[in-house]
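User: I've been trying to design a sequence by hand for this structure and keep getting stuck. Would you show me what you'd pick, starting by listing the structure so we're on the same page?

Assistant: Good idea, let's start from the same input. This is the structure you sent:
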């Protein structure tokens, strides 16, 4: 017999005996339901080892007091202000009030940034400034850390209601700066003003009573040429036009100039350009330098010498509810707005 046949015989011979089930648990038993329900409950004691026992805190968590919570709110940029009637008297003599509308029909060119930071820079130079937020987005209002949801009234109530402007102004939002705030309610003013008498003069009539209280009244205009912008053009003495250092920004300026000429002919003969501000300048690009040269060659001496650069700090400041003067006083953008404020003062 061969080797493989002997292996087959051995494999057949190796058989395991059947395992007898000796565990009583697997035997079939009959249970009475009454015995199960009346069975005693055996409590099981659980013993934890020292490693498994929960660790007790060594120190109690201190409660946050009101003073600490208020300090945290100040760190988050929440703004304190007073009513206009409670404002302290101005310590310097105020001459002729200048109303300047910061305007450009194109969005994203730095209107609100210029309005907020120019107002703060003028206030730092001991000027009294009122910032009028005429944009329904309310960027100038939130740029000073004011929660628009907590406001009961805004510039909308001044334009379409019987609310005196003095009852809406928030004073001392920064050094030398008061603000006439805006909320989303202003979005409906464009439609509601259509059927009103003397609708183009609403803002002018409201701000007329404030002449002599402020050195400058700055109007942050919406990015459009609707009735709100027309109100700003009629109320303003002069215009400050921010122009972004990009090609598309130049296209909107011609339409703005046409609108300014029509308003000047029919509604506001004294209206003129106070200055052109070049914003978001990036010296690394040839296009930015070409736009600067183009604007200076067209507008001449009307263009401010100060050019506002692109800056991360300028973009961060509104999220903290502060101007660049407060948020990063040593930043290049802060110094540029100080220089711009000095140019505005020198052009009086």
């Amino acid at each position: 017999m061969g080797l493989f046949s002997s292996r087959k015989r051995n494999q057949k011979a190796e058989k395991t005996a059947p395992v007898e089930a000796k565990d009583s648990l697997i035997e079939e038993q009959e249970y009475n339901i009454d015995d199960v329900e009346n069975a005693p409950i055996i409590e099981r004691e659980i013993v934890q080892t020292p490693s498994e026992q929960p660790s007790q805190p060594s120190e109690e968590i201190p409660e946050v007091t009101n003073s600490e919570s208020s300090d945290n709110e100040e760190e988050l940029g929440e703004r304190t202000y007073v009513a206009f009637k409670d404002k302290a008297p101005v310590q310097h003599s105020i001459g002729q009030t200048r109303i300047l509308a910061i305007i450009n029909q194109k969005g994203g060119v730095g209107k609100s940034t210029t309005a907020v930071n120019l107002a703060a820079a003028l206030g730092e130079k001991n000027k009294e400034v009122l910032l009028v937020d005429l944009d329904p987005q309310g960027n100038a209002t939130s740029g000073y850390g004011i929660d628009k949801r907590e406001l009961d009234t805004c510039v909308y109530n001044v334009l379409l209601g019987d609310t005196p402007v003095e009852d809406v102004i928030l004073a001392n939002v920064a050094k030398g700066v008061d603000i006439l705030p805006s909320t989303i309610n202003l979005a409906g003013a464009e439609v509601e003003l259509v059927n009103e008498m003397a609708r183009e003069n609403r803002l002018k009539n409201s701000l007329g009573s404030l002449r002599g209280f402020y050195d400058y009244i700055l109007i942050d205009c919406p990015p459009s040429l609707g009735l709100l912008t027309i109100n700003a053009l009629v109320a303003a003495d002069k215009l400050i036009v921010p122009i972004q250092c990009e090609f598309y920004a130049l296209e909107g300026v011609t339409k703005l100039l046409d609108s300014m000429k029509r308003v000047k002919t029919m509604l506001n003969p004294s209206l003129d350009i106070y200055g052109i501000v070049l914003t978001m300048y990036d010296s690394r690009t040839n296009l930015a330098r070409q736009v600067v040269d183009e604007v200076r060659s067209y507008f001449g001496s009307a263009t401010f010498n100060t050019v506002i650069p692109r800056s991360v700090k300028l973009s961060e400041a509104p999220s903290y509810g502060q101007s660049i003067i407060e948020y990063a006083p040593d930043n290049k953008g802060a110094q540029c707005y100080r220089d711009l404020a000095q140019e505005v003062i020198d052009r009086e």
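That's my pick for every position. To get oriented when you compare it with your attempt: DSSP finds 14 helices and nine strands in the chain. The first strand starts at residue 82 and ends at 83.
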